[in-house]
Design brief:
Blueprint: H1 2-27, E1 47-54, E2 60-66, H2 68-76, E3 86-96, H3 98-101, E4 110-123, E5 134-140, E6 143-144, H4 148-158
Antiparallel strand pairs: 1-2, 2-3, 3-4, 4-5, 5-6
């Protein structure tokens, strides 16, 4: 009888623990698949690392921002990036500006159009050891993109970079 009660208590404790994890995930369901990355609070106020134009299929313009840990690593040339570094890429459609071009002698002005997505890279060498120490997420209209294939493709591309870059595409532009 005592043995059965102990087993029941253990099972109840395990279920309670599981329900706590499920409830915690339910409270914060806006995390990327595979890595569990969230949109960092206040990221739009972070410092600028660089800007970029991605031609081809994406045809977007991007602002790449970093938290204080990432900015310090960029400024000091520290690679690999330390744990806690977070890099955020905001992207918009790359569009010509008829309004601006009306002022110039020839069409030449391009601007950020409608937003496309936000991508987040988080450095945690233990948590993301299998992906070179980086966890990834993409957010569309503020919501985590649910595609596991898309999220896994982040590491597949970043892993192709030379080892001195710590799998980061963007160089510091200051």
């Amino acid at each position: 009888m005592i043995r059965i009660s102990s087993c029941c208590l253990a099972a109840a404790a395990a279920l309670l623990g599981l329900s706590t994890v499920v409830a915690a995930r339910g409270k914060d369901a806006n995390v990327s698949p595979v890595y569990g990355v969230k949109l960092p609070k206040g990221y739009r106020d972070w410092k600028l690392i660089s800007v970029a134009h991605e031609a081809g299929k994406n045809n977007d313009i991007r602002a790449i921002l970093g938290n204080d840990i990432a900015i310090r690593a960029y400024r000091e040339g520290k690679r690999p990036f330390p744990d806690g570094a977070v890099i955020v890429r905001l992207a918009w459609q790359y569009e010509s500006s008829p309004r601006n071009d009306a002022v110039f002698p020839a069409p030449q002005s391009f601007v950020a159009g409608a937003p496309t997505n936000v991508q987040v890279s988080v450095k945690d060498s233990r948590l993301y050891a299998a992906s070179g120490g980086w966890g990834y997420g993409q957010f569309d209209n503020g919501k985590a993109n649910p595609s596991q294939a898309l999220t896994r493709s982040c590491f597949a591309c970043h892993a192709k970079l030379d080892t001195g870059s710590d799998q980061v595409f963007t160089a510091y532009s200051h």
